[in-house]
Specification:
By secondary structure, the chain is an alpha+beta fold. It has 2 domains: 10-149, Cytidine Deaminase, domain 2; 169-325, no CATH class. The protein has helices at 10-21, 53-64, 91-103, 136-139, 142-149, 169-175, 182-197, 204-214, 217-225, 235-239, 249-264, 272-284, 288-301, 306-316, 322-325; strands at residues 28-35, 38-46, 72-78, 108-114, 118-121, 133-134. Strand 3 (72-78), helix 3 and strand 4 (108-114) form a beta-alpha-beta unit. The longest helix has 16 residues, at 182-197. This is DUF4192 domain-containing protein.
Length: 337
């Protein structure tokens, strides 16, 4: 989206961040890389809350270095930790960040702080030229208007709908779990492909069959990788987002929508595979914070669910999907008509 919308003021960039993240950050550090005069990658991390300044700075910058074209950076601190005694919270962390960003070759160009009441330039301490600004200066900015006009909206995290089936659904789904034979696998993959091509044909019986197919680990893995039509044969490469060409992101969006629909027909204790699928696709899009929340829901649904544990480790290690690091392959959020 930042390829065709021109931002000319700080409020424009502050308006852009919730649109690109899908939610308004709270108690967070958000860093944006700059590629010349263009915005590059956007990264959100929880505010440090007592973390060692140098360790925190090195971790954040290690993520940003995935953008090999970055020539500079911008920092936005979302917090209500400021007070009359400390109008610039996390000053030691910001100082450490400036040092690490300089070393990485992406010096900090500017920084702002956003509270629940106002926003201000973080680096400027002269009240005569850097006074607080009202939040509506962000929502009424030209950048925000342009994003909305282009069809963007801040949807936020989508909670799965509650189970809407009957008491016999659990057994019905279990009965549709494949037995591991090649024929059953191919039938599940064919049915999944048909639904992704025409999601309007999904009904109750088909939802139970697909939910059952996702219960089998090998079948689940094939169904997940089948979302990416340009995926290579090697499963590990697919899971890490290493694709030879740009994914069909509209198909990815459809797969997530179908997974949400499947969960309406799937009781607790059988939802973890679909939650892992949704979270993994969020991770491919570069939304690690959303991904982590879906993996957490998967582990709450099914304790010790191995795939959720492995995918959580990807996020915890700060790994970014290969496709999310490449602007030629990365996700551009679908606009509403």
């Amino acid at each position: 989206m930042n390829d065709f919308i021109k931002f000319t003021a700080a409020a424009d960039i502050l308006a852009f961040i919730p649109h690109t993240l899908g939610e308004s950050p709270k108690e967070s550090f958000v860093a944006l890389t700059m590629q010349g005069n263009r915005l590059g990658a956007t990264l959100r991390m929880d505010a440090p809350f007592g973390a060692d300044p140098v360790d925190y700075a090195q971790t954040l910058v290690s993520y940003l270095t995935a953008d090999e074209a970055a020539t500079g950076s911008i920092l936005v601190i979302y917090t209500d930790e400021n007070s009359s005694e400390n109008s610039r919270p996390y000053s030691e962390h910001v100082a450490a960040l400036r040092t690490e960003l300089d070393i990485a070759g992406m010096p900090l160009r500017d920084a702002w702080m956003v509270t629940s009441e106002a926003w201000m330039n973080y680096l400027c301490t002269d009240p005569g030229c850097c006074a607080e600004e009202p939040l509506d200066a962000i929502t009424t900015s030209t950048g925000n208007a342009a994003m909305i006009y282009a069809g963007s909206n801040i949807t936020g995290f989508t909670e799965p709908a509650p189970f809407a089936g009957d008491a016999g659904t659990r057994e019905a789904i279990a009965a549709h779990r494949p037995d591991g034979w090649a024929e059953g696998l191919e039938n599940s993959r064919s049915q999944w492909a048909r639904i992704l091509e025409n999601p309007g044909t999904l009904n109750g019986p088909i939802a139970q069959e697909l939910a059952g197919a996702f219960q089998h680990p090998t079948t689940r893995d094939y169904l997940m990788t089948d979302v990416i039509t340009s995926a290579p044969d090697q499963f590990t490469s697919v899971m890490l987002g290493v694709f030879p060409t740009r994914p069909d992101w509209a198909r990815v969006d459809t797969a997530q929508e179908v997974a949400f629909e499947l969960m309406k027909a799937t009781p607790e204790g059988q939802r973890a595979p679909m939650l892992c699928l949704i979270g993994w696709l969020e991770w491919l899009k570069g939304k690690s914070s959303f991904a982590a929340r879906y993996f957490k829901l998967a582990l709450e649904d099914t304790a010790d669910y191995r795939l959720a544990e492995l995918l959580t480790e990807l996020v915890n290690r700060g790994l970014v999907a290969d496709c999310a690091r490449n602007p030629e392959k990365s996700y551009a959020r679908r606009m509403n008509p």
